[in-house]
């Protein structure tokens, strides 16, 4: 799930071959796409920072959490 800021950044260009962005009821936007592998997209998601939330699949959500925590370890 993306915030409106990210929806506006992603809308003008196509990032993946198959993608869609739809507005949800709580003024956020759902971005759906098909990716080659979860590791690649997990890194891409973490690099976006605040305003991007993984809803599914659970495996991707866990990869994003682990990558973000690993990055934070650099500052402890």
Helix and strand pattern: HEEHH
Oligomer: single chain
- Rounded to an integer in angstroms, the radius of gyration calculated over CA atoms is 13 Å
If you average the pLDDT, what whole number results?
A: 85
Termini gap: 28 Å
Physical arrangement of strands within the biggest beta sheet: 1-2
Helices, by number, come to 3
* Inertia-based shape: globular
Largest sheet: 2 strands, antiparallel
State the low-pLDDT regions, or none: none
Strand content: 5-15%
- Percent of residues in helices comes to 40-55%
List the helices and strands and how they pair.
Layout: H1 4-10, E1 19-23, E2 29-33, H2 38-48, H3 58-73
Antiparallel strand pairs: 1-2
Task: Describe it.
The chain is an alpha+beta fold and 76 residues long. It has one domain (4-73). 45% of the residues lie in helices and 13% in strands. The protein contains three helices and two strands; from the N terminus they run αββαα. It has helices at residues 4-10, 38-48, 58-73; strands at 19-23, 29-33. Strands 1-2 form a two-stranded antiparallel sheet. The model has no long low-confidence stretch (mean pLDDT 85).
């Amino acid at each position: 799930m993306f915030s409106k800021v990210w929806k506006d950044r992603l809308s003008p260009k196509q990032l993946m071959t198959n993608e869609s962005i739809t507005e949800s009821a709580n003024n956020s936007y759902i971005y759906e796409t098909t990716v080659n592998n979860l590791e690649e997209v997990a890194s891409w998601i973490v690099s976006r920072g605040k305003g991007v939330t993984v809803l599914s699949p659970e495996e991707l959500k866990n990869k994003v959490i682990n990558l973000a925590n690993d990055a934070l370890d650099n500052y402890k």
